[in-house]
Design brief:
The protein is mainly α. The protein contains 11 helices and 2 strands.
Length: 264
């Protein structure tokens, strides 16, 4: 009885998660679907063809991917030394540093966005890709720092000391020892940064000023238009890159784990 109940609960949870995607899929390939029809009377790939033939949609997709990748890279570069220090060292003001890094997640996003908008207008960064990328670093850095600091909290620096004693340079120690040991954490932190940047709408709107068009902005614009097929197709297009990134990340982590097991 317990197994049946667990299976039923699991099936219900899977259904709740998959049902919206199935509904989007049905709408995205439908031409005519009116009440009280259970399924569309006409199926078509026209909504997707219209999206991929629209330069604005293709441009928004490429822009979103480019910004998310650059933000992920910069976020890891900036977060790495901060996370290493917070994870390995105990120093006065450490709790204040944690509070400072996590302040953007506590303050309302609109207040953060308006403040950055005023600052970037003065720095002549508003309406530029650089401004949007810098603005996306604000919400991504807390998560990358938190993820990497948890990794460094259990990190053993003795591996680095042993490599240096054996004659390895600091650069070689960093690339051959440190990065290999923290590689899974870097992948997970980069994934968080990518997903957060990918879904940013408010900061892109405030800092980009309508000059930097990303896929979330086009999706919100389509929702106000009221065409269900277009909205569904655009939603699936919006979901596809994060799902692909998560799948590739899981595969990479699995391969990395297997490689370490083979070595030892």
């Amino acid at each position: 009885m317990k197994k049946i109940l667990n299976a039923a609960i699991r099936f219900f949870l899977y259904l709740v998660l998959i049902a919206p995607l199935l509904l989007f899929g049905v709408y995205a390939f439908s031409e005519r679907w009116f009440f009280p029809d259970v399924l569309p009377s006409t199926w078509s790939t026209a909504p997707f063809l219209r999206l991929f033939s629209d330069p604005k949609t293709v441009g928004g997709l490429l822009t979103s991917i480019g910004i998310a990748l650059v933000v992920s890279l910069f976020s890891l570069i900036v977060a790495f030394p901060a996370a290493r220090t917070l994870g390995l060292r105990r120093f006065p003001g450490r709790q204040f540093a944690w509070l400072l890094f996590f302040l953007p997640t506590v303050v309302p996003p609109l207040a953060v966005g308006m403040g950055m908008n005023i600052l970037f207008l003065r720095l002549d960064l508003a309406g530029s890709f650089v401004g949007v990328i810098l603005s996306h670093l604000v919400p991504t850095l807390p998560y990358t720092i938190f993820t990497l600091s948890g990794l460094f909290a259990n990190y053993d620096e003795n591996y680095e000391y042993q490599a240096i004693v054996l004659g390895a340079s600091k650069r070689r120690t960093f690339f051959n020892v440190t990065l290999r040991l923290v590689f899974p954490g870097l992948i997970v932190a980069g994934l968080f940064a990518f997903l957060i940047s990918w879904s940013q709408y408010l900061l892109t709107l405030l800092i980009g000023g309508g000059k930097v068009l990303t896929l979330p902005m086009l999706l919100f614009s389509a929702v106000s238009g009221g065409n269900p097929s277009t909205i569904a197709a655009l939603s699936l297009l919006f979901i596809a890159p994060p799902v692909l990134v998560i799948a590739l990340t899981a595969r990479q982590l699995n391969q990395h784990g297997n490689a370490i097991k083979e070595q030892y």
